[in-house]
Every structure is written in C-alpha cells, then in structure tokens.
Amino acid sequence: MAIRLDESGVLRCVEWERLEWLEHGFGTRRSEGWLPAESCADLVQVHGAGIVRAEAPGARFREGDALVASRAGLWIRVRTADCLPVLLADERRRAVAAVHCGWRGVRLELAAATVRRMGAEFGTVPSDVLAVIGPGIGACCFEVGPEVASEFQSTFPERDDLDRRTKLDLEEAVARQLAQAGVDEGRVARARLCTHCGAELFHSFRRDGTLGRMEAGIRVTECP
Ligand SMILES: [Zn+2]
Hints:
Layout lengths: L2 E3 L4 E4 H4 L4 E6 L12 E2 L9 E3 L12 E4 L5 E6 L3 E7 L4 E7 L1 H5 L2 H13 L6 E5 L9 E2 L1 H4 L16 E2 L2 H11 L7 E3 L14 H4 L5 E7 L4
Parallel strand pairs: 4-7, 5-6, 10-13
Antiparallel strand pairs: 1-2, 2-3, 3-14, 6-9, 7-14, 8-9, 8-10, 11-12
The chain binds zinc ion.
Zinc ion binds next to loops.
C-alpha cells in the first residue's frame, strides 16, 4: 500500500482514499490545523496504555493514548512529533481507531491492544482491520540507551545489541505487534518517513525540542 502527500500537505494512504465510508490523513508542517477542531475528539496524551471510546467531539480532559470510534462524522485525532501515529480501520464494521505510539506505547503494545479493544467495542475481527503507520522517528535516528533498548528484547528476539546504546526501529516493532494481533501484513501500510530527518515536512521533538505537533485523524464519513 502506498502513501502520498496531497496538494494540501496531508499524507494519505492511496488505497484508503478509495474507501467511500472513510476519511483519514496525517498532517505535516504544511497543513497545520487541517482537521476541523470542532468535530474532533482527542485526549490528553500521557504515553500510557489508555484507550478511550469517543462518542462526541472535545473531551480533552480525558487522559489516554488511543481512541476508537464508529460514530459517523466524528473525527478522532492524535498529535505527534517523533512518536508514531497509527490509524486503524475495520472495513466490515466500519469502525476506526487513532493511536499515539511513542517508545513507551510501543513497549506497551498499544496498537495491538487497540485492535483487541475494537473487537470488544465493535465486534472487530483482526483480519478485517486495515492499518497505516504514519511518519515518526526512524531507525536511522532513534538512538536509545540500554535501559530503553533492553525493553524491546521480546519484540526483536534476533538482536544481540539491546544491552547497550543502539538504534531502534519503532515502525517495525508496531508492524510485528499488529501481525501478532492478527492483522494481515499485506493490509498494513508503512509511511517509512523519518520525522527527525525530514525537517521540511515534519516537526521533531528530538531535533527541535519545540512544542510543534502534527495531527493525524480518521473518521467514518456521514451518510449522504
Ligand atoms: Zn532519521
């Protein structure tokens, strides 16, 4: 599956653009404020494992790092700058999810937990799930100390360097966890874009230390 940058500066999965019941995108520095704030549900993100079902816009007082929804017209959004935004869509049940995955969220296997939560909330079967892993800090730049690296031994059993300073591929980790949760590998799109390398398009907390964030969002469209 392919990702393209559209004329408004939003990254979109080409295959998903063909789904008439779904809208989605990953904002960049060229598309600040691309989501209609008054129609968005979001969270106070805390790098935890909290998953919230959204029924109405707003609710920023709620803490959590993943949203699930099926209400037509309601955008759910996460904000990132190096952390990975992950969007999920259940074609059969017409339900969606937005996940904020920093290294803590990856370690907590939040994307896989969100697939299971969609099962509990909407009856989602993992084989019906489509996923897009958006832009985040890449394996080229995400260097961590042994205290973080060693947390990922079960995710990367083939590696023997996680007891020292090294680099981690969080996108690959999320892809493996989605596969373990039952999502077909061929239904997972990966942006393969590093926010730390891509200063023109992306905010990067590690590079800039600023508060700039990109917004990723998804919604079930309203019936015409
Ligand atoms: Zn990089």
